[in-house]
Design brief:
Belongs to the carbohydrate kinase PfkB family. With 365 residues, this protein is α/β, with parallel strands linked by helices. The chain is built from twelve helices and 13 strands. It has one domain: 3-Layer(aba) Sandwich (UDP-N-acetylmuramoyl-L-alanine:D-glutamate ligase).
């Protein structure tokens, strides 16, 4: 079975009763957060996991492909996926669940230390698992808007595995962060993206961690291999400064565009965001908020970017050429929406992306 299997489902439209789904591949782990003002707290996290949650809260069917162990932390992750209405592609395995120890400075910025296992089944096995997802209707249970992280670890959050998505094709696949840098899993992710591109658009966020890949040249090479496979790129100015300290942010964006993406966005923290397409360049000021912390802000930005592009009918391999023709007005809308989502996230402690209603109300205000 493959992404191009001849027994394709009938064409579907966004918001139809049988909708295409979005998928995220990458690490999920448990963040143990330390700060000067509170005792250590354990939360489910990882950049790809946060993007999956952000998409689910924006009312998309989401499949998450990330490993977890058959241990207490792994069961915490499984309950969190279930609470957000996200389908887990992989069952728990025998290796320990990955852990990140985050330390918050007085401004809310986080630094991390990791204990990681990033080993995946083969790209072919993962492709078969995507294609074999049970085509069943989700039960009409409380949706992600009613299941915040504060409830995600509840013993009553549901069984070990999320409910299968309703029948439909893969429309978009997001990858990034540790899952696209750390071997041996990163090479598998690359293979999955190669297979998925025939049916889906691809997004990528390097979210570069020098502590995990200290060789800058190797990290650049790896990042650029993913950029060449992707349609939508998001990075932070921190990523660009670490990967390409010898050139300006704009120069890096232009160089990445030459590798093939349709859209490159860069988040700039309190300075807002900027984006580049074939049509031109746009900037977005940051929204004025009282920052609780910045954990997950970039992931909320990524999720809102993809949700906005989907609302414009620009996701999916059949829409790839239309995505390449995105206008500067559309780019401005993407940046404004994504920046607002990031601001909402940053106004709360931890990675707490907005729901669709919250984001819509904030954009109207």
């Amino acid at each position: 079975m493959s992404f191009t299997d001849s027994s394709k489902p009938s064409p579907v439209r966004y918001f139809s009763s049988v909708s295409a789904y979005l998928a995220v591949i990458g690490e999920c782990l448990v963040d143990v957060v330390h700060s000067e003002t509170s005792a250590p707290k354990a939360h489910v996290g990882g950049s790809p996991f946060n993007v999956a949650v952000g998409l689910a809260r924006l009312e998309h069917d989401v499949v998450f492909a990330g490993r977890r162990g058959d241990d207490d932390y792994g069961r915490m992750i499984a309950r969190s996926l279930r609470a957000q209405g996200i389908t887990a592609l992989l069952d728990a395995d025998a290796s320990p669940t990955s852990v990140a120890r985050a330390t918050l400075d007085p401004t809310g910025q986080a630094s991390y230390e990791f204990t990681l296992d990033w080993t995946l089944p083969s790209a072919e096995e993962l492709e078969n698992k995507f294609c074999a997802l049970a085509r069943e209707t989700k039960p009409a249970a409380a949706g992600p808007e009613h299941a915040g992280p504060e409830h995600a670890d509840s013993e009553h959050a549901g069984p070990e595995r999320g409910d299968p998505v309703q029948a439909g094709p893969l429309e978009h696949l997001h990858a990034g962060s540790i899952g696209a840098m750390l071997q041996p899993g990163a090479e598998t992710v690359k293979g999955v993206l190669d297979r998925a591109r025939v049916v889906a658009t691809i997004s990528y966020d390097p979210n570069y961690r020098p502590t995990l890949v200290p060789n800058r040249e190797e990290a650049r090479r790896q990042a650029e291999e993913f950029i060449a496979r992707a349609d939508v790129i998001q990075a932070s100015t921190d990523d660009l400064d670490l990967l390409y300290p010898e050139r300006s942010h704009r120069e890096t964006m232009e160089a990445w565009m030459q590798l093939g993406p349709a859209l490159v966005t860069v988040t700039r923290g309190p300075s807002g965001a900027m984006g580049l397409t074939r049509a031109g360049f746009a900037e977005q000021e940051a929204f004025s908020i009282e920052v609780a912390d910045t954990v997950g802000a970039g992931d909320s930005f990524m999720a809102a970017t993809l949700s906005t592009l989907r609302g414009m009918h620009l996701l999916g391999a059949s829409r790839r050429e239309a995505l390449r023709e995105i206008s500067t007005d559309q780019l401005a809308t993407v940046l404004r929406t994504a920046a607002r989502a990031a601001a909402i996230n940053s106004s709360r402690f931890g990675a707490q992306p907005p729901t669709a209603d919250e984001l819509a109300q904030a954009l109207e205000s």
